[in-house]
Amino acid sequence: SSAVPKTLKIGLIPGDGIGHEVIPAGRKILESLPAEDGLKFEFVHADAGFDHFKQTGVALPQETIDLLKRECQGALFGAVSSPTTKVAGYSSPIVALRKQLKLYANVRPIKSVLPSDKLTDMVIVRENTEDLYVKEEKTYEVDGERVAEAIKRISESATKNIANMAFRIALQRYNSRLADPESTHLKGKSIVTVTHKSNVLSQTDGLFREVVRSEFDRQSSDFHSKVELKEQIVDSMVYKMFRNSSEFDVVVAPNLYGDILSDGAAALVGSLGVVHSANVGDSFVVGEPTHGSAPDIAGQGKANPVATIRSAALMLEFLGYPKPAARIYKAVNEGLLAGVVTPDLGGNYSTTDVVNDIVSRL
Ligand code: ATP
Ligand code: MG
User: Fold this and answer.
1) Tens digits of residue pLDDT in 191-213
2) CB of 75 closer than 8 Å to CB of 47
3) Which of 113, 144, 286, 344 is the most buried (most CB within 10 A)?
4) 300-338 burial string, b = 16+ CB within 10 Å, else e?
5) Distance from the CA of 302 to the center of ligand 1, in angstroms?
6) What is the number of the ligand 1 atom nearest to the C-alpha of 289?
7) Which protein residue has the closest C-alpha to ligand 1 atom 2?
8) Strand 74-79 relative to strand 276-280: parallel, antiparallel, unpaired?
9) Cβ contact 250:192 at 8 Å
10) Which atom of ligand 1 lies closest to the CA of 303?
11) Mutate-to-test residue for ligand 1 from 263, 272, 302, 310, highest number of ligand atoms within 8 A of CB
């Protein structure tokens, strides 16, 4: 079209390890979108991570937060190494970033592509700000032994936010499969499954369940003709997800269950190297591959860039550009099916080979 292209300013935060290989891959793909998509990009580098902490004593510099808030519409975050034993003064920069930018939802789509994948087309929508992850822990002594405890906090407002995010995604999935029924095995109404353990935790998970239900009930009748609400206790959810993932559509869960379910679900489809996510708030989105910094393969040119490339597409979706996002997903899937893949998926192509192949398919 002849319309003036819209320019998006995107922060790039490689972080540690293979973050330095996969973030440039994501950037390259965005830059290679055809002109007809009407998007232009400006990229700005931002620091964060364990290496940065070792050099400067700060894991997430204030400049990074300010830069993102002031100048960018979205960002791509690579990975940060997380030391398994506590390092004084260090805490995860992505957790801090989620808080600072009010990214209250973590959205992780899991969709089968390869013949070896389990038939799956689901999205896990995980609450990102509270539950056990408020990190209010203490240790004390009772009768000569140490006892440790942690606060599990669930609030009405955070639960409303996450419920409405799940409903918005469910509606959008309903509409997109109406437009393209061949794109998925799912048919008819979208289903949101709320996952909890309210049979045991009647107050915390009980509140989560109740608020999701009442938010659902207040939607319009048009919405109710397109989206259905179901529920599943988290332990049987795990069982069912592995037995028959094809029956799930949108899953909404408090922070901890969502964390566990989403890493588990990644096992249904190939490798950690292909699973993408986004941290989403009302005014910002950060695309983030699910994997870590993979120190064992860092610097060797064999990191799988697909998770980051898909995260870039998911970021575009949340920024309101589903068309270029769909173009990226399609090119990625074609490359996977053609076997142009890195060693984690059994191939012997390099990161750069995979990126170039996807660029040529765009
Ligand atoms: P971190 O401390 O950053 O979490 P980690 O080693 O605990 O690092 P991951 O980085 O998630 O965790 O790696 C787990 C395994 O999966 C490693 O063997 C790694 O090489 C592999 N892996 C992760 N991401 C990729 C990728 N993008 N491409 C190829 N292999 C990957
Ligand atoms: Mg890890």
Assistant:
1) 999 999 999 999 999 999 999 99
2) no
3) 286
4) eebbbbbbbbbbbbbbbbbbebeebbbbbbebbbbbbee
5) 12
6) 27
7) 81
8) unpaired
9) yes
10) 28
11) 272
Task: List, for residues 162-181, the tens digit of each pLDDT value.
Answer: 999 999 999 999 999 999 99
The verdict on the CB of residue 25 being under 6 Å from ligand 1 is no
List, as one string, the DSSP characters of 36-89.
Answer: GG-EEEEEEE---SHHHHHHHS-SS-HHHHHHHHHH-SEEEEEE----SS--TT
- To which residue do tokens 């469910």 refer? 170
CA separation for the pair 346, 356 (Å, rounded): 18
- The Cα-based distances of 57 to 81, 91, 93, 98 in angstroms read 15, 11, 12, 20
The response to whether residue 292 sits with its C-beta less than 6 Å from ligand 1 reads yes
What is the Cα–Cα distance from 125 to 158, expressed in whole angstroms? 13
Task: Kindly state the tokens that stand for 242.
Answer: 């592995």
Structure tokens at 171: 């509606």
